[in-house]
C-alpha cells in the first residue's frame, strides 16, 4: 500500500515561547527527528506543513526527503494545517492510498512505532492515556474529511468516531512538548 505522511509543524508554540519544531533533543531538532523516523519507517511522500518559523524549519529539513506545504493561515489552528497538507496530498499524489498524520512534538515515538502504523490496515491510531490519537493512518476514503477540516479541531474526532480501527499502543506518545515543564520531563529533570 502506498502510504504518504503529513507532518504538522506549522504552529507558533505559544505555550513554549519558542519554536518546538526546532528544540534539539539527542542532537537533532524535533522536526528533523520526526521526519527521519517517518522516512525510515517507509512512508512516502512526506509532506511537512509549515507556518510559523517556516524559514528556520526549512533549514533543519534541507537534506530531508520532504515536500514543504507552506500554510499561510497557520494561526487558524491544527485542523486548518491538516486540511492544507491533505489538500496538497490529494492534488499532487493521487497514487496515495493512505496517509499518516503525525505531529513533530512526540520525541519518544520510535521508527518501529511508525513502521507498525504503516504495516497495519488503516484506519489505525496510536493509543496512549486510554484514548486514540496521532500519529494515525487514515485510508483514502477519509481524505475528503481531512481536506475539509477547519480551525483548531484536528482529526481526533475521526479517530474517536471510527467503529473499526486498529490501535497500536505507545505510552511514550503521551509526552508531547508544549511547555518548559514538558521539556524538563523529556530530559529527565
Could you give a short description of this structure?
This protein has 189 residues and is of the alpha/beta class. 32% of the residues lie in helices and 24% in strands.
Structure commentary:
With 189 residues, this protein is an alpha/beta fold. It has one domain: Spore Coat Polysaccharide Biosynthesis Protein SpsA, Chain A. The chain has seven helices and nine strands; from the N terminus they run βββαβαβαβαββααβα. It has helices at 30-40, 54-60, 78-92, 111-119, 143-147, 156-161, 180-186; strands at 3-9, 24-25, 28-29, 46-50, 66-70, 98-103, 124-128, 131-139, 166-169. The protein has a seven-stranded mixed sheet with strand order 5-4-1-6-8-7-9, with helices on both faces. Strands 2-3 form a two-stranded antiparallel ribbon. The mean pLDDT is 90.
Strand content: 15-25%
Order of strands side by side in the largest beta sheet? 5-4-1-6-8-7-9
- Strand element count: 9
What would CATH call the class? Alpha Beta
Give the helix level as a range of percent.
Answer: 25-40%
Radius of gyration: 15 Å
Write out the CATH superfamily name. Answer: Spore Coat Polysaccharide Biosynthesis Protein SpsA, Chain A
Shape: globular
Key features?
seven-stranded mixed β-sheet; 9 strands; single chain; Spore Coat Polysaccharide Biosynthesis Protein SpsA, Chain A; 189 residues; alpha/beta; 7 helices; two-stranded antiparallel ribbon
Task: Summarize the SSE layout with pairings.
Blueprint: E1 3-9, E2 24-25, E3 28-29, H1 30-40, E4 46-50, H2 54-60, E5 66-70, H3 78-92, E6 98-103, H4 111-119, E7 124-128, E8 131-139, H5 143-147, H6 156-161, E9 166-169, H7 180-186
Parallel strand pairs: 1-4, 1-6, 4-5, 7-9
Antiparallel strand pairs: 2-3, 6-8, 7-8
Amino acid at each position: 500500500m502506498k502510504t504518504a505522511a503529513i507532518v504538522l509543524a506549522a504552529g507558533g508554540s505559544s505555550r513554549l515561547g519558542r519554536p518546538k519544531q526546532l528544540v534539539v533533543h539527542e542532537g537533532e531538532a524535533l522536526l528533523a527527528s520526526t521526519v527521519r523516523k517517518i522516512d525510515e519507517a517507509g512512508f512516502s511522500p512526506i509532506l511537512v506543513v509549515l507556518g510559523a518559523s517556516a524559514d528556520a524549519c526549512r533549514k533543519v529539513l534541507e537534506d530531508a526527503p520532504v515536500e514543504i506545504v507552506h500554510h499561510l493561515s497557520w494561526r487558524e489552528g491544527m485542523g486548518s494545517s491538516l486540511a492544507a497538507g491533505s489538500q496538497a496530498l490529494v492534488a499532487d499524489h493521487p497514487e496515495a492510498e493512505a496517509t499518516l498524520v503525525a505531529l513533530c512534538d512526540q520525541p519518544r515515538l520510535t521508527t518501529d512505532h511508525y513502521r507498525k502504523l504503516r504495516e497495519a490496515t488503516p484506519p489505525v491510531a496510536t493509543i496512549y492515556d486510554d484514548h486514540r490519537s496521532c500519529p494515525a493512518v487514515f485510508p483514502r476514503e477519509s481524505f475528503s474529511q481531512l481536506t475539509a477540516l477547519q480551525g483548531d479541531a484536528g482529526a481526533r474526532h475521526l479517530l474517536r468516531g471510527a467503529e473499526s480501527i486498529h490501535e497500536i499502543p505507545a505510552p511514550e506518545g503521551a509526552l508531547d512538548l508544549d511547555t518548559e515543564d514538558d521539556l524538563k520531563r523529556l530530559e529527565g529533570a
